[in-house]
Amino acid sequence: MATILMIEDDGNFARLVDKIMKPLGHSVIHAGTAMVGLQLAENETFELVLLDMDLPDLDGKVVATTLRARTGMSKVPIIAVTAQSDPVARRLALAFGCNGFISKPIDTRTFPDQVLAYLEP
Questions:
Q1: Which residues contact 88 (CB under 8 A, 6 or more apart)?
Q2: pLDDT for 15-51, tens place per residue?
Q3: Each residue of 36-63: b (16+ CB within 10 Å) or e?
Q4: Rounded CA separation 27/59 (Å)
Q5: Residue 49 lies in a domain
């Protein structure tokens, strides 16, 4: 199944996502900061990135742009997962290279389908 990079500063939320996705056979690798996430993306292969847009060390838009510029990451789906739910935040996330947008708090019943939709060929 898929290996997912989750760049998220909220450890509790990262554990929740792992708890949701692991039983479906997916591996979630958690990076607690943008810099750690960028380093992981440089050294490992991922099929999908879940990106918090409100990180303490770098803005999520910068992270998305940086990931998009990397050769191995140009076609990897990046999904913005953020508490910013307004239409402007959604448009900005998409403009900076994200493929999709999921608002927090997530609905644990629909979240797996929302994520898996980006993994299907």
A1: none
A2: 999 999 999 999 999 999 999 999 999 999 999 999 9
A3: ebbebbeeeebebbbbbbebeeeebbeb
A4: 25
A5: yes
Structurally, how many domains does the chain consist of? 1
Can you give the CATH number for the domain in which 52 is found? 3.40.50.2300
Report whether 46 contacts 52 (CB < 8 A): no
Asked if residue 121 belongs to a domain, the reply is no
Looking at residue 96, its amino acid is F
Which pLDDT value is given to residue 121? 63
**Is the Cβ–Cβ distance between 44 and 14 less than 8 Å?**
no
Residue type, 74: S
